[in-house]
Every structure is written in C-alpha cells, then in structure tokens.
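Q&A log
Question type: sequence-to-structure
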Amino acid sequence: MMNQDSSRGAVGAIGRPDRLTVLAFLSDSQTEQVVRDGLGDIVANGMDIRRGTVRTAINAMAKLQTPEVLIVDISGEDQPLHALGELSDVVEPGVRVLVIGDTDDVDFYRHITRGMGVMEYIFKPITREAVARHFAPLITRKAVGADAARGGRVVAIMGARGGVGATTIAGNLAWYLGVIAKRHTVFLESDLHMGSGALLLGGKTGPGLRMALETPDRIDPLFVERAAQPVAERLHVLASEEKLHEPLQYAKGAAQRLIETLRVRYNFIIMDVPFLPMPANRELLEYAHHRVIIMDPSLASVRDTLRLLGVPNGPWQPQSPTILLNRQGRPGGLTRKQIEDALKVKIDVVIPDMPKQLNESASFGEPAVTQRGPLRQAIIDLSREVGFAGGRDEQSVSLASASPVTGLFKKMIPQRT
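Response status: OK
Response body:
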C-alpha cells in the first residue's frame, strides 16, 4: 500500500478529473470476469478492462494517459521482472500498480512488492474474494483496520429463507476446513433453541454460547477453550440447545467480543446465522468478513435473496455476498438463468439437487462432504470464495503496506522531500 508520505505527494495527480480510476490488462476471460465481480461495486464507472498481457500494457501506456491504478497480468511472461521494469518507464509518477500472475512463490512476491514497488500481487487462479480483499482497499484507499486483518477469518452462512439448506452447507464447509483441510475451525450455531448444526457434525451442545452472549465479561481465551466442544482434532462446535420458553437476554456488544476472541484461536469461524430481527444475529452478520447467501430455485427465495443483497456491508466486508444456489435442477424449480436474470447478478456456486445423499447424511450425522462428488466440489469452490487456499496463497500478506517502497517502481510513487 502507498505509504503516508507518498500519498501526500500524489494528491494532485489523484484529484485530476480526467484520470481513469482503474485500467486493467488481463490475459483471459475467466480472470477478467473475476476482477469485474470483485471490483465492480467500487469502481463501476471508472474501470476499463482490456484483453492483453503486461506487454500489451507496455505498448498501450506509451500512448495513453496513466490511470490512478494499473492492473497488469504477467502470467505466461518469460521475463516478468524485466517486463515490469519496462512498464515502469512508460507510466506517470503516482500510479498504483497491482499485478496478477501464475507464480506461486513467496520470494517472487517479496521481490516485486518490496524491491520493485508493486503494491500487491495475487496469483492464479484468482478468486473474487482475493481481489476484493487485496486489491479493493488499495483502490479505494480505505484500508481494512488491523483488528479485521489479524486473526482468523469469519464467514457468515445465511439462508435466504428457512429450509434452503444453509445449516447443511455451513456444517459441510466447517467439516471440510477443519477435518479435510486441517485448518483450526469452529462452527458457531446462532440458533440457540432449534439449531441442528451440532447434530449434523456429531458434536455436543453446551451452555457456553448462551453465557457468552448474555455475559460478555466472561469471554476470554480460556472460556472459549471450555465452551467450544471438539468434533475432531481441528474442528470444534459452539452451539446450544436452550429451553424453548427461555428467550436469550442478549448483551449489546457480546457477539463482537466473542468473534474477536474466537479469531485468536481459530483460522476459520463458520457461523450459521439466520437473518432474523435479533440483535445477536445482526451483530454476528455485521462483524463477519464474508457473507454467503444460500438460496434454492424458488420464487420466494429469489425475492428474499434480493432483499438480503440490499443489506449494507459491515466494516470488515470489502465485497458483496457470495450467492450459492442449492438444489439446482429440482423438479418444478427455476433455472439458473431465470434466477440470474431476476437477481441481476451471477450465482457464484451451485449445488445440484441430491435429496438422497443429503437425507442420508442428516440421518447418520456424517457430513456429505466426506464423499467425493458434486457436493464436495461445490464446498471446495465455496471455501475458495470465502478465503481458503490450499497453498501458500492463504499465508500471503500484503507486505508492501509494512515496508518501504524501493526499486524500479519507486519513481511511480513520489516521495516527500
């Protein structure tokens, strides 16, 4: 990220009304679509995406006015460092350069961000979540606070309406991350009275969640260790089965404090949170990093998904929610095209209608993701959407924001004298 001194030096250039906000040169249609989806909400009227590589960008920038942000694709380039050096000769000072490539190497990342002044780098296959998390703050200059950047990732799974399969999908996602991918994961079931997530995972319920939401002063790492019930070595469940005649006496701020404490202990906090007019649920949704809306192919589900898409993002959410269509192909249901036309957005993940497999899973308390097939692939796709990566990508941190910018791109970011 541009440091404070350099940002002051570039204020005049950034304020120019004739300057394009984002210009991107991308080498394939899939990457182009992901970038559009990830950045479209924040630069809808100021983004120009063109097909091409870093070489195309070099030729174009020799003739065009430099934008505020330049995104270049170096995948397939034999000499990417040399190409980035050539690019630095044809752009104006002050441009923020973001790079997409196909090299999964920490040393390469450090070299171009620390040594060449590239502000951020992500490697293919890129996801909408990665673009929104790593690129969007550098474009909007609205940095995600340290409290949101440090610690585990919080994912809220919310059904467009009851019965669409949100709990089943949340449970399977938690199982995949904790048991199969071996990431420290906790499944939080916000329905204290009728939730079935713990039952699906074969976990135990307890009084800990209710105590946390009613008496937040008790929340600390030791409390979390005792309240979360183990399902597997790296998967825990935080759920309750409270008496139906005893409503929750929620203490304001308790959900945020619980989330912050869980993030110290777990890589992923997967929350099954119905969108109900309850303070606890609203706060859990607000402080998630990523929201996932689960819908089925029904008209009522389309209506309610549209309403959920209109809910403002929380302070930790740089992108719009992921939409997952469950039970695609169900007899009498809407088609994917009909749903996308009605929503005016694309569906991100699709799970076909598999009543037999999911009914057996629910009956025996064994997540269906343990079996290979369409559901497991959909859960893998969903895990990538919410920020999981199987390689080094999950550990890549924007070091550019914490280190001085030097090298070939230094001249792009004017320094205060």
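Response note: The chain has two domains: 4-127+395-412, 148-386.
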